[in-house]
């Protein structure tokens, strides 16, 4: 019997044999029924035999179950030496990356983010910015006009007006967004991006403006010491107006942004009393700043969606 049990390899066969021994008509069941006719020694012997047989069945059952489990695992075995399927990982676009860097620097100085529509009305894009109809400064920007008189926003300065109209003063905001002009070459794209800063409160001066520009540029480019050159300029919405150049590698001066003290007319247009509140604004090309930081030379590459370029540029 012992040999027979050990030679069984399936649970079904084992169960059949078990039934033939311990079942209702099983051989052991029959012998146990006759126990009362046996003497003490024979009884003890039968009990031992009974217990050891049961034990043997139990052991064999768990052996078979184990073998079945192992066979199953063998079939599912993973070959960890196999080469993985190549994975195409996405990355953030360089403009998106630079935006989060620009935002985190400006936010750390207390500027709050605003946005506005890309299709603007004349008031927000020009008139409220002290550039009424027929003002010669309208020629500074090659505007896309829509049939109903609206324009594709030429400058994020429009967002300053919306922010002041919405929340009044004092205000410390920055605006970001796409801007549109009829121009196209290696450094100009008909759609590009600008960032605008505005800070209005009592007693704000030009030195506050220059301090914030300096802190912003050194934060964004990660440079401890930056050299700035401030040149007088003209924008209809600021007075005085300046342009800011920054000394770049090789001692080259690069024009970085326009800025100035908000023109009293702009404040009045937004319901602010210029005798009580003063402030500054600055505006710059977000694409241009990203090109400088990442050492790129063609703005059009930002919009070509060429993954090979993005990869080779290290993004
Ligand atoms: N809007 C100007 C442009 O598109 C840039 C600019 C200049 C923005 C001076 C300003 C500013 O806020 O104060 O060229």
Extended strand count: 9
Structural class: alpha+beta
| CA-based gyration radius | 41 Å
CATH 4th-level superfamily of the largest domain: Bira Bifunctional Protein, Domain 2
Inertia-based shape? rod-shaped
CATH class type of the largest domain: Alpha Beta
- H and E order: HHHHHEEHEHEEHEEEHEHH
| Assembly type | single chain
Q: State the helicity in percent bands.
A: 40-55%
When the domains are counted, the total is: 2
Uncertain residue segments: none
Question: Judging by the overall fold, what is the CATH architecture of the largest domain?
Answer: 2-Layer Sandwich
Explain how this protein is built.
- This protein is an alpha+beta fold.
- It has 2 domains: 2-75; 94-312, Bira Bifunctional Protein, Domain 2 (BirA Bifunctional Protein, domain 2, 2-Layer Sandwich), CATH 3.30.930.
- The chain is 41% helix and 20% strand.
- The chain contains 11 helices and 9 strands.
- The chain has helices at 2-7, 11-22, 27-33, 40-75, 94-108, 122-125, 157-167, 206-221, 264-269, 286-294, 307-312, and strands spanning 112-114, 119-120, 151-152, 171-180, 191-201, 228-235, 238-247, 253-262, 278-285.
- It has a 7-stranded mixed sheet with strand order 1-4-5-9-8-7-6, sandwiched between helices.
- Helix 5 crosses helix 10 (286-294).
- The model has no long low-confidence stretch (mean pLDDT 93).
- The chain binds 3,4-dihydroxyphenylalanine.
């Amino acid at each position: 019997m012992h040999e027979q049990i050990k030679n069984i390899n399936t649970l079904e066969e084992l169960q059949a044999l078990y039934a033939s021994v311990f079942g209702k008509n099983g051989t052991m069941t029959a012998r146990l029924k006759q126990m009362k006719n046996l003497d003490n020694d024979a009884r003890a012997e039968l009990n031992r035999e009974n217990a050891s047989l049961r034990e043997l069945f139990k052991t064999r059952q768990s052996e078979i179950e184990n073998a079945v489990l192992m066979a199953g695992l063998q079939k599912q075995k993973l070959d960890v030496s196999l080469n993985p399927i190549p994975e195409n990982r996405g990355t953030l676009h360089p403009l998106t990356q630079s935006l989060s860097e620009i935002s985190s620097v400006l936010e750390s100085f207390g500027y709050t983010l605003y946005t506005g529509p890309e299709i603007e009305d004349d008031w927000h894009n020009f008139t409220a910015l002290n550039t009424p109809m027929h003002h010669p400064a309208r020629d500074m920007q090659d505007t896309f006009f829509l049939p109903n008189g609206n324009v594709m926003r030429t400058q994020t300065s429009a967002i300053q007006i919306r922010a002041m109209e919405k929340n009044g003063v004092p205000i410390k905001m920055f605006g970001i967004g796409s801007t549109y002009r009829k121009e196209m070459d290696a450094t100009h794209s008909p759609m590009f991006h600008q960032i605008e800063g505005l800070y209005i409160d009592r007693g704000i001066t030009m030195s506050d403006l220059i301090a914030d520009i300096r802190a912003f540029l050194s934060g964004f480019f990660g440079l401890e010491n930056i050299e700035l050159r401030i040149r007088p300029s003209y924008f209809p919405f600021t007075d005085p107006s300046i342009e800011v150049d920054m000394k770049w590698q090789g001692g080259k001066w690069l024009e970085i942004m326009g800025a100035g003290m908000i023109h009293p007319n702009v404040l009045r247009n937004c319901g602010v009393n210029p005798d009580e509140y003063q402030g500054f604004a600055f505006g710059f090309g977000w694409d241009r700043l990203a090109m400088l930081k990442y050492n790129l030379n063609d703005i059009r590459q930002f919009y070509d969606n060429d993954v090979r370029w993005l990869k080779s540029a290290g993004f």
